[in-house]
């Protein structure tokens, strides 16, 4: 029998996209307390079933697939450009396919305007109307208004007309930056990308006998399982090692390992991998906010997924990529690998010296690059200790020299030195955990 929480989630899933919901409405419709309704709506938001839109409320939205994560909703555009909605508020939950800048004659402009687009334009009222008729939303720059006719048409077609005070170039840059950030996020694998939603996890209950464990081993061929209570909450983990020497009638609760490490669907795969390597764990339960079991991920699942991602083309630059862009890699005559570059204005702090945060980024990026030459695979920086730190002025040439001190199967230790004009300006020790292949 489903719990109240599960009943509410099923109810929300059956609502039409765009329909508004509230704690009070859910509580009244399903006969539950407002506290229960609130917690269920928060869970629905975590699952991507609903979204809270400023000045609109909580609405049922289409769950974003991982492949479409770079697409923005019109409500998100409103927040990005600090705009206000003139009409078509009911369509704020919809996503835009691309944006078009209206800086040409009407006939030429309309060749590019298609359903699902966002047209960025100034106070050209005729363009506003035709754009809506073609199925595209409108973003009016310069803080201008539009006509009552256009507002009524926007409400009728449920296509937002948004106004903001920024100019066209600034607005386009802001939206482009938001999409670019989404592309970087798309590269980061999460646990939810690995677990199979249509595959029910195999588990044992706390009051099952040890004999049930042996039955599961014969059925599945696996040797470790999560243990749940009657409410489906994870209480422990049990492995073949735990049941050795115990009578077949003894309860699983007596032999299991309590309070196991768990992850949520939104945990990054790199974090899950680090937990597995650091704690020597082969299997992690995946739970929701109430610690109810959603699935499991194994070390093999993690490794295969990380290997797959390394073969994919990269679409976005991270901060480390940007700050390391101006550095060249040089091999000295004695075989030492050196990274040389200049301190640019973007890398400086308010005093015009090399920012400590940028310096840390340079060191970790250099360490990652040299470690990947010694061993293919992924790694997680575990510790960085800076022993020496002297100011480095803007436009200064610096040399970064990483040296591997120890290289084990699971960990590595490096020394990093930064020089300016032959003088040591920074020195650090770094350790990293290797993710096995």
Automatic annotation (TrEMBL):
Keyword Membrane: no
Domain CBS: 195-254, 256-312
InterPro entries recorded: CBS_dom, CBS_dom_sf, Diverse_CBS-Domain, DRTGG, HotDog_dom_sf, Ser_kin/Pase_Hpr-like_N_sf, Thioestr_dom, WH-like_DNA-bd_sf
PROSITE patterns for the chain: CBS (PS51371)
Keyword line: CBS domain
Keyword set includes Cell membrane: no
SUPFAM superfamilies reported in the protein's UniProt record: CBS-domain pair, HprK N-terminal domain-like, Thioesterase/thiol ester dehydrase-isomerase, Winged helix' DNA-binding domain
Alphabetical list of CDD domains matching this protein: CBS_pair_DRTGG_assoc (cd04596), hot_dog (cd03440)
Any one Pfam family match given in the protein's UniProt record, by short name: HTH_24
PANTHER family hit by this protein: CBS DOMAIN-CONTAINING PROTEIN (PTHR43080:SF2), CBS DOMAIN-CONTAINING PROTEIN CBSX3, MITOCHONDRIAL (PTHR43080)
Protein name: Predicted transcriptional regulator containing CBS domains
Lineage, highest ranks first: Bacteria, Bacillati, Bacillota, Bacilli, Bacillales
